[in-house]
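Dear Dr. H.,

I hope your travels went smoothly. While you were away I took the liberty of generating a structure for the chain from your last submission, since the lab meeting agenda had it listed for discussion. I wanted you to have the full record in hand beforehand rather than looking at slides cold. The sequence, exactly as received, is reproduced here:
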Amino acid sequence: MIIPTAEPFFFPGNEIGCLLVHGFTGTPKEMRWMGEYLAEQGYSVHGVRLAGHATKMEDLKREIWQDWVASVEDGYHLLRGNCKVVFVIGLSMGGVLALYFATQFPVSGVVAMSTPYKLPSDPRSRLQRPLSKIIRTIAKGPPDWHNQDAAEDHIDYPAYPTKGIIQLDALLAKFRRTLCDVKVPVLLIHSHKDQGVAPENLNHIYDALGSKEKFTLWLENSGHVITREPGRETVFRTVAEFIEQYAVHIL
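The corresponding predicted structure, in token form, is as follows:
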């Protein structure tokens, strides 16, 4: 059963589709405020729920990274039934999925927010698979929220399933190999104060992208979940301007 308030959402609108993808262990709720803003601009918006998320942590332990890609694909086809163009917008692992998805399907642009290029170095990483049978979960680091109201009603799993980390690492390896194949316009957004994904990850992604049209937006007063932080209005407005700029050339 899906956790209340963490359900996927769909807001019908015009022929420009926005596919919103949440992060690892997160839920569609972290993308909903952005979805509501984009819907107010007239766009068709769908916030997907990735496989194994927004229910119970045991569900996530059974998923492989291809299941998360399939969740994005399902959302894409839902939007394509009503829209001429689709922009994929992802947060954290959702940004990874958005950029990878752009190498597999005809999207019009990508926005990747707080997105990792790779996991932090850990000497235990070579032992991930055998250790996963003993160490079932990995504790999360301290929260980096700047909006305490949002922090109090935020919904995510309380820890990282070790098997999920293995799948995330595999997804990131595939993602890094295909970044050069991303050719559509890309907007990368990150906060200098992100303690969940180090800011230098943005630079690595930017340098590896095959896109000729690639842009960055840096925030100063936000933590990792920038879609629910004090700088979100700047994020929402910049994303809407990016979509408007590139949708006009296509429609």
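Two observations you may find useful: The chain is about 40% helix and 15% strand. The CA atoms of residues 206 and 214 lie 7 Å apart.

With kind regards,
E. W.
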